[in-house]
Amino acid sequence: MRVLVVGMNHRTAPLEVRERFAVAEPAPHLVKLVAGEEIDEAVLLSTCNRVEVVALTRHVEPARHRLRAFFHRDLAGEIPVQGAATLENLLFEYVDGPAMRQVFRVAASLDSMVLGEPQILGQMKQAYRAAVECGACGAILSRLFQSAFAAAKRVRRETRIGERPVSVARVAVELAKQIFESFDDKTALLIGAGEMIEAALEALRGEGLRTIQIANRTRVHAEHLAQRFHASARGLEELREVLPQADIVLSCTAGDTPILEMADFAEATRARHGRPVFVIDLGVPRNVDPGVNRLDAVYLYDIDDLAGVAAANADERRRETMLGEAIVLEEQQRFDGWLLALQAVPTIRHLRARAEAIRQAELQRSLARLTLGENERQTVEALTRAIVNKLLHAPVSRLRAEAEREEGLAYLEAARVLFALDDPDMPGAEAAEDSAPEGAPDRPLPDPEDSEGT
Amino acid sequence: MIVALHQLTAALYLAAGLLAGVGLVLARPTLSRAAVAVLVAGACFHGVAFVAFHLASEPPPLTDLPASVSLMAFLGVLFYLALLMRSRLSALVAGVAPMAFLGVFFAALRLPQSEHAPFVGAASSWPHAHVLLASGGLASLAVACLAGIVFLAEDRRLKAKRPMSGRLRLPSLEALDRVNAVALVVGFPLLTLGVLTGMMWVEDTSGRFAAHEIWSIFAWGIYAVLVAARFRAHQGARQAAIFAVAGFAFLLFAVIGVGLLT
Description:
The complex is a heterodimer. By secondary structure, chain A is of the alpha/beta class. Chain A contains 17 helices and ten strands. In chain A, the strands form two sheets. A six-stranded parallel sheet of chain A has the order 7-6-5-8-9-10. Chain A has a four-stranded antiparallel sheet with strand order 2-3-1-4, with helices on both faces. In chain A, β6, α10 (about 220-230) and β7 form a beta-alpha-beta unit. By secondary structure, chain B is an all-alpha fold. Chain B has two domains: about 1-120; about 120-260, no CATH class. Chain B has helices at about 1-25, 30-55, 65-85, 95-115, 125-160, 175-205, 210-230, 235-260. In chain B, α1 (about 1-25) runs antiparallel to α2. The longest helix of chain B has about 35 residues, at about 125-160. The radius of gyration of chain B is 19 Å and the shape is globular. In chain B, about 50% of the residues are buried. The chains are: A alpha/beta, B mainly alpha.
């Protein structure tokens, strides 16, 4: 059995292509994929940064063609995607080890655009669940995904990859948390508007911030925003009046000169009796006099300061990827061992069948020459079974253990030659014909979320 | 027995300090929580040590320096644990536990002599009241000092716009300032009562103030000014932190340093 991954991601395809290939409902596609001969099991992962199919197959070449055709015909459909040749260039493909590694790396967020972002694991679990529910995901891919989820949890637990925020808004919130114990009794003053300021405000609201005042040059705009955020609106002329009430000041408005000077904050901090103020100035040119940071209890961060912290955090995440990769490799090797061990199953079955056939034949021959009661017959039968089991125990255990390594194939070959397992005239050959991998469960393993408690 | 209990307590406080330190560096909240649990265990044994102290010598010779230092460490730990129930201050265990360890370790080294030391002023209750109240005051002001040190380091880092180094996760400035305020509210009245009972004790014995008493009254005066600045003049959090550190250093010198020097 071989694992194959074909897909596109943020590194190989631009957003305008990825969004065309995004799949909202993977089940019908998966059912079609596994209905053919080429693919035995499949999982389709579609997020804003990637569309990937993880497939299990016995024959890689037909499966590869089938998956590429799936992208060309089923997903691209009627939409011309810069020509077929271009689409070929946008698709990546991994087989066996690299394919398994890709699944592990995606789950652990080592392949994400924002390293360490936690959403991908949830999206993968959702994709896996969808595949299980429509019957496209069997025992082996189930095991692969379970292992990938376990590896992802280990990476999150044992490294700092997801610890430091990397967006300006989250950095602002993290800094605010280093100043304030809680936000539910705090007041934020929002000056101006802008996407980043709204993102920061949303993040602060997520932490419990309730009281918001919005000041703008145009009062109507302030009122419009105030309605959105359940805040109260002010004009810029009221800024000095409301400043002493603000624990957090978020500013992003146009203007050549600072709208808040040192004197404004000096007066405000006096009125606040030394209670701290966190000032986030996202304006370019800056809205707040940089000297304000020298005042006691005023902590001023401009856009460069926040971006600097975000970049430092991103660097730290990148440094952590080495640890994450090591964990992924370890978990992947464990899965690889399990998959290799499955190859020993037919040989072991065959060997047992051969031994059992010989035992039965010799037993019948001997019993025909003896006159034994029922009890004696059962005793002899048990005796022969015990001898066979004891003789086979050591070689079977060794085969199982060795099969988990690449070099274990030589042991399997040796066993087949020594016991003449490939000779169709030998007894037990028929019994081994229909042997199925005994290490593989018949049904997918339970959903990891059931036992995660997350 | 008392010494063995002190040694065990010191070992637990040290273990709590180490656990908390590792927990801070590795940013492992579980280690910080474990450190708090070990600190609680240490405080339990510390309490048992004082019960044993009481049973061995009634009333126990708390006026001896090792015993009073041990008591101060015990009350400091209890005060910190009480604060911990209200705020997220588990990171401070990395400072509280080593301070408590030093106090108990010092006491464990010196206690064998003090168990046989003559008890001064057994007929009066002033010495005990003095030691209990002053130790309580000193312990809470020690916690204020620790919070002040962490506050100043954090304030400096935030002003310099440096990201948190390594995996440190310290309490917020607001929480640290609250610790400072609560410690002053609790510690200053205790210290005041400690000084008053100390004066009564001196009146009952020699009637003459020695260097230790004079410095202690001076230190109390400084604290009175700090409290007034904090609660009457609405001093800022940073000044309050500086004053908490400086005030406690002076108080420590007045109460312990002068005693050791004279």
